[in-house]
Amino acid sequence: MGRKEKWYAAGLAFECTQCGNCCSGPPGYVWVTKVEIGRIAKFTGRTDGWLPKTQLRREGFRYSLTELADGDCIFLKRENGKSYCGIYDVRPLQCRTWPFWTSNLKSSDTWTQTAETCPGLNRGTRRDFVAIEELRLKKEW
Questions:
Q1: Which DSSP string do the residues of 73-127 spell out, in sequence order?
Q2: Mean pLDDT across the stretch 130-135?
Q3: What pTM was estimated for this model as a whole?
Q4: pLDDT for 6-65, tens place per residue?
Q5: Do the beta carbons of residue 6 and residue 136 sit within 8 Å?
Q6: Which has the least CB within 10 A, 59, 71, 114, 120?
């Protein structure tokens, strides 16, 4: 499907409001590669290049960051009404590409549904079609 067929061909706006909604909520997965795990481990001061079970879980042949009982990502921090990532500089690709995921870009309806929980959608910096596709299709950072 080419640019003309994509509903977001004219581009989309997004600006993070630090609400933390994308990092919390119902149970889910933040998929991480072994390379990303190593980066996070180093960033958090671990010398063994790996994360403890309190921060990482195995799901079949893949790994996901863990969640707290309230659904927050293990690395989500909240202060003074704002949320931020405690590993922002080395956050996984899945987090880096939010909200330009294929699942959110299926249709204008799915984008609108996502905007109901993400106040940063449709505001701030407008990304053109090429930039959106680069994020959507990115395989590594």
A1: BTTEEEETTEEEETTGGG--HHHHTTT--TTTSS-HHHHHHHHTT-TTBTSSEEE
A2: 98
A3: 0.90
A4: 999 999 999 999 999 999 988 899 999 999 999 999 999 999 999 999 999 999 999 999
A5: no
A6: 59
- In angstroms, the CA 77 to CA 71 distance is 13
Contacts made by residues 67-73, CB under 8 angstroms, sequence distance 24+: 67/27, 67/28, 70/24, 71/24, 71/25, 71/26, 71/27, 72/20, 72/23, 72/24, 73/23, 73/24, 73/30
Q: Specify the length of the chain in residues.
A: 141
User: Which residue do the tokens 């863990």 mark?
Assistant: 66
How far apart are alpha carbons 87 and 77 in whole angstroms? Answer: 10
pLDDT bin (cut points 50, 70, 90) of residue 3 is low
Question: Largest Cα–Cα distance of the chain, in whole Å?
Answer: 49
Gyration radius (Cα) of the chain, Å: 16
Written as one letter, the residue type at 84 is Y
Q: Which residues pair with 13 in a beta bridge?
A: 126
